[in-house]
Amino acid sequence: MASRRDFLKTTAGVGAAVGLGSAVPKPLIGAPAVHRRVVTPVSVASGNGLEAVDTAVRAVNAGGDTLEAVVEGVNVVERDPNDSSVGFGGLPNLDGVVQLDSSVMHGPSRGAGAVACIEGIKTPSRVAMDVMRYTDHVLLVGKGAQRFALSMGYPLENLLTERSRRRWIEWRARMSDRDDYLVPPETGSGNDEPFEDEDSYGTNLIDSHDGVRPQGTINCNVINREGDISGVTTTSGLAWKVPGRVGDSPIVGAGLYVDNDVGACGSTGRGEAVIKTCGSHSVVELMRSGMSPTDACLEALRRIVTFTVEPRLRNDDGRPNFGVNYYAINKNGEYGGAAIYAGARFAVCVDGETRREESAYLFERDR
Ligand code: ASP
Q1: What domains does the chain contain, in order, with CATH numbers?
Q2: What is the pLDDT of residue 25?
């Protein structure tokens, strides 16, 4: 991580050049907080990204590109029918349709690509990478995103697994006792409990205070030996969402941000809160000013708490009734994760070891 001294040294250098009447224009954006050096490859991801971080570090160690590495990592989860938070098997929207969001950022080329509300394509992260590589655009949505994917050779597939469909049917039946949908007898009913979510790291049920709407996402970031950084975020978003709803995951600066001079950050949890605070971009900017990844994540979460003024989004104690998690890595290969509430974990692969670590947090769950 950049020491404060490094940062001051860098900016002092810029000031001196300007003071001497140099022709070098003063940069509009602060100079990078850290200098390029050889680092140990590190990958950090949401808690459901153990395999992803492992895959990403292996790929960069084998000389692979950083973006290819993280996309390869999250593809494992996107293709997994048993992960109900991402890609194939993701929980559907209000109409029972799976709509996916994803974004990628490639540090060395300063490239970005994203798709939102795309249907029928198992690996939206790969389509996001293709938007970056093969178009002059950053974000494609809905039918247009799907048509682009088909043009690139992706097969159109049914993403709604039988398991996710049954969960949606059950949710629809429980929505109201005044409509004509009955709770399926095979769920054993009478009981109002929502489905227990089996993907304890893949969704935010465990992080969310509403305890009813499963959410889930995978974010994965990596830095290679040369200090190049890339990141990806991919999700099926909020379960039972209003059709057309787009979360933070495909929004550059919200669910993902990478600055190759500084670091990367991605998020999971309530996307609306992350969008409103430009979450991942804020974390990267805080790291640029000298904060450690963990402190930067915590500070960005405090902004979310400050922004949460609607009573419907607050607990009795005035705190957010939802979860948000950030995962960050800096130019020196330091990493961290933080959540609004205690109990979250994130995945990391560093020094040949892949593990989950406890996220830092703002609040204990129960006071
Ligand atoms: N951030 C995702 C969204 O709002 C959901 C999640 O990560 O739980 O779409």
Answers
A1: 37-357 (3.60.20.30)
A2: 55
